[in-house]
Structures are given as C-alpha cells and as structure tokens.
C-alpha cells in the first residue's frame, strides 16, 4: 500500500458498445490493474451514457452493459480493491456536465475529432456527439481524478477536460484538480487486423472473449505483405510483430526481431505463435468469464457496491460545485 501522500485518484471508463478487444486490454485495462496493484483509489466504469451516442438498440445496450461488466471482472479488476460501476447509476454526472457546459466554449468542442470527422464527412452530428467530451470531463472531474489511464485516441479528450476545468476555475476560483492522461508509449495504439487502430467499430478487432475458433480466424486474418518465408522482413513495418510484441518481454521480442531480419520466418508460424500466446494469456480470464455468466446477481452486487463507493466522493463534489456557482442545496 502507498503512503497516503502518494495515493492518487484514478478514473477511467469504457463504453459498453461492443466486445472488448486487445486494444482495450493492453491500451487501458492492463494499466487499470497496475494502478490497483499500486494501492491507488481506482474508479472504473461502464460509460453507457456515452455508448448511447453510437448505439440505439435497447436490447443490445442491456446485453452489452451486462457482458462488459462481466468482462471487467474476468479481466482481473478486483471489485474488492476498486470501484466498478455503471455511469448511469451516478446520474449526478449529468448535472455536473451541465455546470461544465456553461463554461465550455463552442470552439473547444468543434475541434474534437469525433464531431469534426463526422461534420467533415458531410454527416449531421447530433448534440450528444458534440457534448460527448463535456460528459467525459464530468466523469473525470466528479472524482477529482489525478490520473486517467487511456489509449492514445483519448488524449484529446483528457486535454479538453483540463481546459474545461481551467475555465471553471477561472470563473469560480480554484475548484477542480487538473487530471493527467496516463498513456504508456508501447501500448498507446494497438493496431487492428487491417493496420488501422483496433476498434470495436471498425470490424478489425481481435476479441478477448470470442469463441476460440473465431479468435483463431481473427488472428489468421491479420494483414501481411506478400514476402515469402525466406525473405528478410522489417519487424517495424509488420502488424503481426506489433501484436506479438504485446505478449512478449523485451528479451523474447529481440529474438523475434532478429528472426524477422534474418529471413526464414513465415507468417503462418507467427500467427500460430500469437494464437498460442493469446490462449496462454487470456485462457484463465476466458474461463472466469464463463463462470461469471452464471452469476448475474454477483455482477449486480458488484455494480451496487461500486456506485455506493463512488457516490461517497462524487455527491459532496457536486454539492460543492453547485455551491460554487450559486445554486442552493436545499
Ligand atoms: P473502441 O475504440 O474499440 O470503441 P473504446 O472507445 O471504448 O474502444 O475505448 C476504451 C479504452 O480502450 C480507451 O481508453 C481507449 O483509448 C482504449 N483503446 C481502444 N482501442 C485501443 C487501441 N487500438 N489501442 C490502444 N488503446 C485502445
Ligand atoms: N470516451 C472514452 C472512450 O471512448 C470512454 C470514456 C467515457 C472515458 N468517460 C471517460 C475514458 C472518462 C476515461 C475517462 O474510450
């Protein structure tokens, strides 16, 4: 356990909008676990309000919310040592979002990728997508987080959170702590099977809890060039190498890099190796995930306990924020 002076508050969320994949694990959940191990106060939630900006299917939404809760626990987030909760079980986050929207300049949100990309493609964006980063800022500021473990794609959102906190502090006095993103270089962006960022929405994922046959098929469809077995290959230009790297320590990886460069290494062998390492790493978690499927009451209890813990700090924060802006707390 850390000395209390070193103890930090950590928060992060994942949208229950699809099946969790290697990018979610190595880019986010692995770091969530490290912060728990280090004895920090950790708050991890399912961002279901955010998921509504991309998913409009009631049954799928309920199903994914339940399955993502099971994924969190199966991946090793120990509910006894962190708070796991559902964003919508803390609806006060929407009130804080409103207070934050009143200090957020339009231009700040117009520059955010998800909204900007949609508008640039000529598509009409809804207000939820536009306001998405302000809700994310509320998620983070409501617990006065010091650090936010996320993948590289979320860096802009954490910067926007800091900006919004500063706008609020400028208007109402020093109130919010400015959070730092935590993005380890080596796992900042895990590539998908097609070389773009791995994402639930791109159809290029390797899913952690998919049936074994499907995982195998996903790994075997990772895109390669047409080099033959004998050809020397550049590891740094290979999606297979980037994915293999996730499962190797530095010594083992150096051995694979040598084999790439010296030729004689075929893509089939690499895919087999990745599949075998995938099963070694995730096998126990996949088995735990199957058990959890039979324990819905246990998962409900985890979410109930989790929200009770976060409410202890979030509700006083919202009360103080109301007070700071001149809204009475009757
Ligand atoms: P997705 O893009 O698949 O919908 P989310 O947006 O729900 O995933 O992301 C949840 C967390 O996982 C975020 O912290 C995000 O940065 C991280 N993450 C998602 N994809 C990747 C990736 N390919 N590489 C690294 N981190 C990722
Ligand atoms: N926007 C994040 C994503 O798509 C999910 C998220 C919502 C989040 N609220 C957050 C991440 C607060 C970190 C902190 O990945």
Overview of this protein structure:
The chain is mostly helical and 330 residues long. The protein has two domains: 216 residues, Rossmann fold (3-Layer(aba) Sandwich); 80 residues, Tyrosyl-Transfer RNA Synthetase (Orthogonal Bundle). It is 54% helix and 7% strand. The strands form two sheets. It has a three-stranded parallel sheet. Strands 4-5 form a two-stranded parallel sheet. The protein is globular and about 75 Å long. It binds adenosine-5'-diphosphate and tryptophan.
In round numbers, the mean pLDDT is: 96
> For this structure, what is the CATH class of the largest domain?
Alpha Beta
Radius of gyration: 21 Å
- How far is the first residue's CA from the last residue's CA? 39 Å
Major sheet size, sense and barrel closure: 3 strands, parallel
* Quaternary structure annotation: single chain
Question: Helical region count?
Answer: 13
Question: Which series of helices and strands comes N to C?
Answer: EHEHHEHHHHEHEHHHHH
List of distinct ligands in this structure: adenosine-5'-diphosphate, tryptophan
Question: In percent, how helical is the residue content?
Answer: 40-55%
Portion of residues in beta strands equals 5-15%
Low-confidence regions: none
Please, how many domains? Answer: 2
Q: Provide the CATH topology of the largest domain.
A: Rossmann fold
Which descriptor suits the 3D outline?
globular
CATH architecture of the largest domain: 3-Layer(aba) Sandwich
In the CATH hierarchy, what is the superfamily of the largest domain?
Answer: HUPs
The count of DSSP E runs of length 2 or more, i.e. the number of strands, is: 5
Structure class: mainly alpha
